[in-house]
């Protein structure tokens, strides 16, 4: 309470703007799950989603930390990526669907919006806001899950009767929430609380047949274990991961009839190969669909178009019309060209590189951003669509911001690490003692004589 009063009294405007910026950041970060809730509960339309995304992005760009901006290597790579995409759009047009073009512009604008955002994206406020959205998503999914439990026409649960991707979107946000929590220092009490609470949405969404997103969560939490700088913290994260695995397996087993159907599809897809042509694709099997999409993408990539075939042209040239390639890096390579894809991959690699790893070892915000980029990248490889990758570009912008503040993080870590030590009385000594005691006259005489005494003897 005293700390809150002090913050309001000392810098009320800055503190208020940081909280507003955090709210806007979460609104962008969870735009898809929030839109599902708004459309289903309040019957809003696309105007709400547009206002939410455009307004939040514009506000973060307008009131961002422009005075503190210092260019980072990631910023230069991002600008080169923008140039490559811009040339491709100029040569090939904006694509057949203007809506996807507008979403692409907002997705790309997410990078500078997060780059200039003054809020701490791993703070308690971020955790509370995302947890509220995950809880609401779980509650609205449960009635649909019960209603469609044994319905053969809905193996994947459709929320509000319209959104079959909603459980996966809620699960994605759950993954980011877990990474944010595990980036902070845990105790046994917090660990058990997080594990118990997260098991509920995990069970629900696993029963909805969300699969790959949970695989991505497990892999990324293993990465979080590797980043953690304390052995006890690794144990805590491992306990939470165990709770997620048990709850996920329990959710799949509870709806075993439907789970078995997808297991059979996976086995069938692994043991058979696609024949030439499009007629052999089983449109009920998502793995077969992705295999065919990747084959089509590689075929189009082999044409050698340096700036791609054009944005959103792939669905018109694939064996499965109207379906994107479901891999953001591959889509960028096909539609914007190999140069743009290489820059995109380099930008991601720089955001999870050695510097970010060492910053993650000493700072919770860097830990969350590093793990978050890994998680978003894994999802983009199997579910990605470049115009819908706003969480990834937000985290890439955060990675550049964290990297630019790396020296400050290092100074804060050194200050906290040495706060229990005091400097020695002898300024010429480099040995740090745990408790420094003032030097007595004898100690001063034993060292080199003071300058005044030396001057008196010379005269």
Describe this structure in words.
Helices cover 71% and strands 0% of the residues. The chain is mainly α and 459 residues long.
Can you tag this structure with a few keywords?
459 residues; mainly alpha
Distance between the termini: 63 Å
Low-confidence blocks of residues: 3-12, 432-459
Helix content percent band: over 70%
Q: In sequence order, what are the helices and strands, one letter per element?
A: HHHHHHHHHHHHHHHHHHHHHH
Number of helices: 22
Beta-strand residue percentage: under 5%
The SS-based structural class is mainly alpha
Describe how the helices and strands are arranged.
Blueprint: H1 2-10, H2 12-29, H3 31-42, H4 46-62, H5 73-92, H6 98-115, H7 124-147, H8 166-183, H9 188-207, H10 212-227, H11 231-254, H12 256-271, H13 286-301, H14 314-317, H15 328-336, H16 338-351, H17 354-362, H18 364-383, H19 390-404, H20 406-417, H21 441-446, H22 451-458
Helix pairs in contact: 1-2, 2-4, 2-7, 3-4, 4-6, 5-16, 6-19, 7-8, 7-9, 8-9, 8-10, 8-18, 9-11, 10-11, 10-18, 13-15, 15-16, 17-18, 18-19
Give a short summary of the structure:
The protein is an all-alpha fold. Helix content is 71%, strand content 0%.
């Amino acid at each position: 309470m005293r700390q809150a009063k002090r913050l309001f009294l000392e810098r009320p405007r800055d503190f208020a703007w940081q909280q507003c910026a955090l709210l806007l950041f979460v609104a962008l970060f969870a735009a898809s799950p929030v839109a599902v809730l708004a459309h289903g509960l309040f019957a809003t339309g696309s105007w709400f989603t547009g206002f939410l995304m455009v307004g939040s992005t514009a506000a973060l760009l307008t009131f961002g930390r422009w005075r503190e901006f210092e260019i980072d290597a990631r910023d230069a790579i991002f600008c080169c990526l923008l140039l490559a995409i811009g040339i491709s759009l100029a040569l090939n047009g904006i694509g057949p669907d203007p809506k996807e073009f507008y979403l692409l512009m907002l997705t790309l604008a997410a990078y500078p919006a997060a780059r200039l955002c003054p809020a701490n994206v791993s703070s308690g406020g971020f955790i509370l806001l995302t947890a509220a959205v995950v809880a609401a998503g779980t509650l609205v999914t449960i009635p649909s899950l019960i209603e469609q439990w044994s319905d053969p026409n809905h193996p994947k649960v459709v929320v509000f009767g319209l959104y079959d991707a909603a459980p996966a979107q809620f699960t994605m946000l759950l993954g980011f929430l877990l990474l944010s929590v595990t980036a902070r220092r845990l105790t046994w009490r917090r660990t058990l609380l997080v594990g118990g609470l997260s098991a509920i949405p995990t069970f629900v969404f696993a029963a909805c047949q969300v699969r790959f997103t949970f695989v991505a969560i497990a892999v990324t939490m293993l990465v979080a274990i590797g980043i953690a700088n304390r052995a006890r913290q690794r144990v805590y994260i491992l306990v939470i991961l165990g709770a997620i695995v048990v709850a996920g397996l329990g959710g799949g087993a509870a709806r075993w009839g439907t789970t078995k159907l997808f297991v059979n599809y996976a086995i069938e897809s692994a043991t058979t190969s696609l024949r030439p042509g499009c007629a052999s694709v089983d449109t009920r099997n998502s793995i077969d669909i992705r295999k065919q999409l990747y084959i089509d993408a590689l075929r189009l990539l082999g044409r050698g178009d340096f700036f791609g075939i054009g944005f959103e042209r792939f669905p018109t040239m694939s064996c499965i019309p109207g379906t994107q390639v479901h891999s953001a890096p591959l889509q960028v390579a096909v539609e914007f060209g190999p140069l743009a894809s290489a820059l995109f991959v380099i930008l991601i690699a720089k955001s999870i590189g050695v510097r970010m790893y060492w910053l993650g070892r000493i700072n919770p915000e860097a830990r969350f951003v590093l793990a978050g980029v890994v998680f978003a990248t894994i999802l983009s490889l199997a579910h990605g669509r470049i115009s819908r990758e706003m969480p990834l570009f937000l985290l890439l912008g955060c990675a550049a911001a964290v990297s630019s503040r790396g020296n400050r993080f290092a100074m804060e870590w050194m200050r906290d690490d040495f706060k229990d030590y005091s400097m020695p009385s002898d300024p010429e000594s480099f040995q740090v003692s745990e408790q420094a005691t003032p030097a007595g006259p004898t100690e001063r005489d034993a060292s080199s004589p003071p300058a005044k005494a030396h001057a008196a003897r010379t005269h």
